[in-house]
Design a protein that fits this description.
heterodimer; A: about 550 residues; alpha+beta; 4-stranded antiparallel sheet; 15 helices; B: about 120 residues; mainly beta; 7 strands
């Protein structure tokens, strides 16, 4: 398992349960500490029927509707059908779902037809899920955990994935791993954008690994932007998307830089109650900024000042004190919010067994593409991490038990050569380059796109590889951050190219992909997903007909 | 416009036993409310690409990887704030020092090479 967030940890447990004798769970950071799951302070969707009657088919209907006709129906059905099983299991494992009387508390969230979303108080859902899974994997005898191991390449033998190559960050020692089956669980690519809600270690590495191994990706043009991510003042110790449930519960007001309400100018009346869709809110805020009426940091104000202190404390609970630590008093201060990159619908193309188009290679969690179509329903991300992790772990264990795992030395030499070239080269600070990439993606490949901007971004990135000087033997320093940043940048540029190529090809607007130059949804031409793969060094897209 | 930029000085222990240890002072600009981790990220981006410190979640205080000694106190770089004047940053004591502000905080059974 490459990546030890929610999906990778669950996949490891599932593989061990299915009889795999040796499971290696590794992460470039620390096991169960990085990735998106641990950052998620919000809710998890599953048809548990605790708060009111619900069926997994209803959850599926909501998921398909949010996906604007593009969800892979088999993957979406798997997510919704198995979700309740995984959530009850997490409950047995002591995750601590919030209770209402004897029932698991379930609340409404945007896009859901019934109260379906469970959570751990207060804003602790992701950390609680991560800790529960960390405890389980640490007790498994079959799971070998390895922190600080960065994978740089997948190893391929005769069109079959037979393991992975990378290096131990602490010592700098190169490592080659033979594996009967390999699962990519590295999360998404939201770090490619200047404003994002991700852990800082998700830079599209899994997508780049898959592309370079010859696997297909799908739906790469669909990056979900969350309309009211935290922008200012500086807020530490909190998830940047934390304002959503409070705006939902309390009717927080969106105000422009001149402290006027503005959402009604762009969409049907908001009624102070969060009725507008995410893409409408995103459009409204960015339009005000473009018109010179943004807040000081380039977003909008979110104000709760019309509410009493008692009402705020009742709704926010101890969160009020964490806000006070950040110098934020909601009775007098309006915070600044902005759309931020939040989740990637696209990813590695898999079947219902989570098998990619390369034998021996699987994916789990956000790294998987297709289940959420053009737009993900809120609450489905942790559900898919656990459900897809379960399937991927089980199927990989079955295939891995019988697979030949010999790694050809030519593949190792190639991988070592690619790594050494990254160690040796020196140029502009890779983090400065990454910042430039984030700005470019935000400006030209963000919530609203057009051909001119996308072509500009494509041309900028084409002329901008990470310089590589082929070297012989090289030594990697202990904790070589410069190398880590260069590897992240190289993966990010590859993933960015896949997003741009897919976004350019889709000449319509649908869900999270909004084109200024093709503003209508065009079902005749585009009621289909696109896949993308590397063919002789060039990214090639085509439509997937169902 | 944003006019709250200030200057902080971070005195950082650099190097390792093998490479030699020294304390280096860096000046950097910051905005009110910025964390020590924000400052380290700025230095890594703009001055010292090889500066080594642990982080993962960046500022949500959930990964707890950025633990270090700040002005003599063991705490998280993501919740400690930058301030004008000198702040001293050191690696954790009683842990094997790897380089700069990084010590061996990975649990023994999660290490590739058990030293």
């Amino acid at each position: 398992m490459i990546g030890a967030g929610g999906a990778g940890m669950y996949a490891a447990l599932s593989a061990a349960k299915a009889g795999a004798r040796q499971v290696i769970l590794l992460d470039k950071n620390m096991i169960g500490r990085g990735g998106a799951t641990i950052m998620a302070q919000m809710t998890v969707a599953a048809a548990l029927s605790e708060a009111e009657p619900d069926e997994w088919e209803w959850h599926l209907a909501d998921t398909l509707e949010a996906g604007r006709g593009l969800c892979d129906p088999k993957l979406a059905a798997l997510l919704c059908r198995e979700g309740p099983v995984r959530m009850r299991e997490m409950d047995e494992w002591g995750v601590g779902w919030a209770r209402e009387g004897d029932s698991i508390a379930q609340v409404m969230a945007p896009g859901h037809g019934v109260k379906r979303c469970c959570y751990v108080d207060f804003l602790s859902t992701g950390p609680a899920v991560s800790q529960t899974l960390r405890n389980r994997v640490s007790r498994s005898k079959e799971i070998r955990r390895v922190s600080n191991l960065t994978i740089t390449e997948l190893l391929i033998n005769d069109e079959r994935c037979c393991g992975a190559f990378g290096y131990d960050v602490s010592s700098g020692v190169a490592v080659s791993i033979e594996a009967g089956a390999t699962i990519i669980a590295t999360g998404g690519l939201t770090k490619l954008y200047a404003r994002n809600s991700a852990s800082t270690n998700m830079a599209g590495e899994g997508y780049a690994l898959a592309l370079n191994a010859g696997a297909e990706l799908i739906d790469m043009e669909f990056v979900q932007f969350f309309p009211i991510g935290h922008l200012a003042p500086r807020l530490v110790g909190m998830d940047p998307i934390m304002w959503d449930p409070f705006r939902y519960k309390l009717g927080g007001l969106l105000l422009n830089g001149e402290h006027e309400e503005f959402v009604h100018r762009y969409a049907d009346a908001d009624e102070g109650n969060y009725k507008i869709t995410r893409d409408q809110a995103t459009f409204a805020i960015l339009s005000e900024v473009a018109a010179g009426r943004g807040s000081p940091h380039g977003g909008a104000y979110l104000s709760f000042a019309h509410l009493s202190e008692d009402r705020l404390r009742e709704a926010f609970g101890p969160v009020i004190d964490r806000l006070a630590d950040n110098g934020i008093d909601l009775t007098s201060t309006a915070v600044e919010v902005s759309p931020i990159a939040h989740y990637h619908m696209g990813g590695i193309r898999v079947n219902e067994k989570m098998q990619s188009t390369i034998a021996g290679l699987y994916a789990a969690g956000e790294a998987v593409g297709g289940a959420n179509g053009a737009n993900r329903l809120s609450g489905n991300a942790i559900t898919e991490a656990l459900v897809f992790g379960d399937v991927a772990g089980r199927e990989a264990a079955l295939e891995g038990a019988n697979a030949a795992t010999a790694v050809p030395s030519s593949a190792e030499v190639w991988a070592a050569d690619r790594l050494s070239s990254m160690v040796a080269a020196s140029d502009e600070s890779p983090d400065q380059q990454f910042n430039r990439l984030q700005g470019l993606m935000w400006d030209s490949v963000g919530p609203f796109r057009d051909a001119k901007g996308l072509e500009f971004a494509r041309d900028q990135i084409d002329g901008w590889g990470v310089s590589e000087e082929r070297q012989g033997q090289v030594t990697i320093l202990p904790f070589d951050m410069n190398l880590a940043s260069r590897l992240e940048l190289r993966a990010a540029l590859t993933s960015a190219k896949a997003v741009i190529a897919s976004a350019l090809a889709r000449e319509e607007s649908r869900g999270a992909h909004q084109r200024r130059d093709f503003q209508e949804m065009n079902d005749e031409a585009w009621h289909c997903s696109q896949r993308i793969k590397l063919h002789e060094g060039t990214l090639v897209t085509d439509k997937v007909r169902r | 416009m944003i006019d709250s930029q200030r200057i902080a000085t971070l005195e950082i222990v650099r190097g390792s036993e093998e490479l030699g240890l020294e304390t280096v002072a860096y000046e950097l600009p910051f905005e009110d409310g910025a964390s020590i981790l924000d400052g380290l990220m700025w230095l890594k981006t703009h001055r010292e690409p090889s500066l080594a410190f642990r982080f993962s979640c960046i500022n949500a205080n959930v990964c707890r990887e950025c633990t270090m000694v700040i002005d003599g106190e063991t705490t998280y770089a993501c919740t400690a704030r930058l301030r004008p004047g000198v702040t001293k940053l050191e690696p954790l004591p009683n842990r094997r020092h790897i380089r700069d502000l990084v010590t061996e905080t990975v649990p023994r059974r999660e290490r590739l090479i058990d030293d």
